[in-house]
Amino acid sequence: MTQKTKSPASKEGQLSVDVFQSPDEITIVAPIAGVDPNDISITITDDVITIKGERGHKTMLKKEDCFIQECFWGSFSRSVVLPADTDTSKVDAECNNNVLVVRIPRIERVRTQIIKVKK
Question: What domains sit in the chain, N to C, each tagged with a CATH number?
Answer without folding.
Answer: 13-105 (2.60.40.790)
